[in-house]
Amino acid sequence: MASFRNLSVPLLLLTILFPMLALCYINPAATSVHQNATKSSASRAYIVLVEPPRSNAGEDAHRQWHESFLPTSLADESSESRLLHSYTEVFSGFAVRLTDAELDTMAKKPGFVRAFPDRTLQLMTTHTPEFLGLKNGTGFWSRAGYGKGVIIGLLDTGLYATHPSFDDHGVSPPPTRWKGSCKAARCNNKLIGAKSLIQGDEFGDEEGHGTHTSSTAAGNFVTGASYHGAGVGKGTAAGIAPGAHIAMYKVCANRRCKQSAVLAGLEEAIKDGVDVLSLSLGGDTIASFDEDPIAIGAFSAVSKGILVVCAAGNSGPRPGSITNEAPWLLTVAAGSLDRSFAASLHLGNGKSIDGEALTQKVSPSSKSHPLLYSEERRYCNYKSGSGITGKILVCEGTRSKTQQSNIHRIVGAGAAGVVLFNDEISGYSTMVQDYNSSVVQVSAADGDVLIAYAASSESSSVASLIYNNTLFGVRPAPVVPFFSSRGPSIIAVGILKPDILAPGLNILAAWPPSTGSGRGTFNIISGTSMATPHVSGVAALIKSIHPDWSPAAIKSAILTTSDIVNSTGGSILDEQHRKAGVYDTGAGHVNPTRAADPGLVYDLSVTDYAGYICWLLGDSGLATIVRNSSLTCAKLPKVHAVQLNYPTITVSATSTPFTVKRTVTNVGPANSTFTAKVDAPRSLTVRVSPETLGFSKTGEKKTFSVSVSSHGLGEELHLEGSLSWVSEKHVVRSPIVAVSPRGDTAPDPSP
């Protein structure tokens, strides 16, 4: 990796606006399909779970067992096989096309468990390493070997294999445990795995999404990167773990991802031996984890030591819009960077408004032009020749292709420029978009200022547009943008979701040159899709230093070391510049350097999760998700959600003390002493016992209890505090959330 250390160009990992904001997976509320499906003679795709064969058979025997469930007419078909995929790792089952009558027949066979209709999921960066404290050739990034020896698997739209981000200069050969294969245009020590799980589809990336996410997670260093080669955001691009290996499993096409293909990708990734899985895709809210094939498949991955990182979704800022709520997943929300593609509007009254422009004028003019705002034409639906020549139009942005086309037309017809202000929901979070015209985007608050100024005096309301290229150190940062999905979890009551915040607004990363988006090979898009691979890359760095850590230990390290303040030293803000809460940010904003040395971790095993599933779903849920005949709810202690050894604490806010227990493992110096430090509002009383934890060796475990009671909650639906275990070298922080019993997501006060 010496070549990495010699690079001195400033790091730049960028982000871009994806026209379809992506959601991390959530399965629609499916039950056994034969109960819900509308009877039809037409066949449709189903995912079928069956009991495993009695003997520990190989893949061929598994497939024969699966085929034994098929109706005779289907098994004998030769013109077109309707058996789409056979699964042995994610669970025992298969994907198949069936009519309702065929499904009814199959459901009566011994060994049949349940079936789900095959749903369609939707898809949900170059300055970010530096923003996250990763500097080339020094410190933690160098000590971690830039993720050397770790394999990141991505389930996405494929990737553009010959992009320079996937060059293997300085990257070591893959570890011998790697069992996968590569079927891309270029395979090397960087891109070691490439498979398409879409029948009849060649490997490649027609969308750009997979190229973007994979280069964000582990792209190699590329000098001179910029948005579409236009110099915007120019610098050296690199993924978060540029020394790690990439394995891409193509499971999406036409911006749609079939569950059956996603499961097939999970199946292959587990067999191949990936270390981290990154899923920047999702769907609608589910009713229960045992009705979600992806959550079930991801549990299999976690049980085999693979950390699964998933996007929180793009349905914010609505409360309860979070997806990927299963506690065995690491769920990522999106935040902003300290970078701006700066442009400003200088008004005739001497005031100046700062905004952003993805299209930067090479030779900007400071000439003033009249401002025009029309409530009737609020969304820039002007006609050519309607008094717009030589004027700067003020409009509300919609991010629609129709508005983009209108703006291009009216600027071409003589308008001097357009200022687009955010809608009220977007607030201060601006997703930059390329209008290929003189367009500046500003906040909703500045839009109000401009409307008032334009109406003050038609003859004197003038302004000029100034372009300032790329600015760094913009404050405050991070800010949670409007689209990032919010908690609380409706399904995992007692578990704080999202887990963590990471860069996801206006991220620049690799892009295929043939997608029609422009002439360059880097693009800027936004979404929790972009935040997810940042955390996947951080997980790879930690795994490189601590190869024996479990997925839960890595997750704990990331959560308990996160930042809870922004670049000004104040609280992290939301899109309205209000203080962001735990349901916006999770534990806080990811801090890679501290996460590699957390001091203590909250670990969880398959048995712990199984006890939780027994409490939540009983034996049927255990059999569906865990699929381990040696584990039964009769033999396992039922673990209430609030008692799960999670690195965050969520309880019911009651006047009677509510007590939970947690166990921490020392992963720091052998002889360490940690003292409890509680931060809580006056209306929340938190007591910790014992108040001091002493460790004499690494790997030693200590258990403590936390009692929480509230008084004078008023109209608040929840209260926030924290518990930090503080030693000479470490601060291990866990958010505490006390939820009002009036709320729908309040934990049971008597677990």
From TrEMBL:
Residues in the signal sequence: 1-24
UniProt KW keywords: Glycoprotein, Hydrolase, Protease, Serine protease, Signal
Localization annotation: Secreted
Domain Peptidase S8/S53: 147-565
GO process annotations (BP): proteolysis
Family: Belongs to the peptidase S8 family.
Domain Inhibitor I9: from-to ranges: 46-124
SUPFAM superfamilies for the chain: Subtilisin-like (SSF52743)
UniProt name for this protein: Subtilisin-like protease
MF terms in GO: serine-type endopeptidase activity
PROSITE patterns: SUBTILASE, SUBTILASE_ASP, SUBTILASE_SER
Family annotation (InterPro entries): Peptidase_S8/S53_dom (IPR000209), Peptidase_S8/S53_dom_sf (IPR036852), Peptidase_S8_Asp-AS (IPR023827), Peptidase_S8_Ser-AS (IPR023828), Peptidase_S8_subtilisin-rel (IPR015500), Peptidases_S8_3 (IPR034197), S8pro/Inhibitor_I9 (IPR010259), S8pro/Inhibitor_I9_sf (IPR037045)
Active site residues per record: D156, H209, S529
Domain Subtilisin-like protease fibronectin type-III stretches: 643-737
Segments traversing the membrane: none
Highest taxon above the source species: Eukaryota
GO cellular component: extracellular region
